[in-house]
User: Fold this.
Amino acid sequence: VQLVESGGGLVQPGGSLRLSCAASGFTFSSSAMSWYRLAPGKGRELVAALTSTGVATNYADSVKGRFTISRDNAKNTVYLQMNSLKPEDTAVYFCSVFWIVKRYWGQGTQVTVSS
Assistant:
């Protein structure tokens, strides 16, 4: 299983970023996918999750109405569109999948929201 995130960077408050996670090594089209984040001094937080059929579930309260998770099964890719970014969204963002008996993680992509 391989998960490779991209799309992070430095953005000003109020800006937008789109994260991508390219997946391989498992049956992507039948797997639920998730985005988590890890901020300095905080525990890992589930940001959003998406079923295999594209039904979004479990948005963190802090991102509801601002973030959107989606997927393209033809490209084996899951996305996280982040709008109206705030400094408190600063974190390393990871995509994740639970496959067979284990949860897998990507290497993460840094998102920094600062003026």
The CA atoms of residues 87 and 113 lie 5 Å apart. The chain has no helices and eleven strands. The two ends are 37 Å apart (CA to CA). The first strand starts at residue 2 and ends at 6.
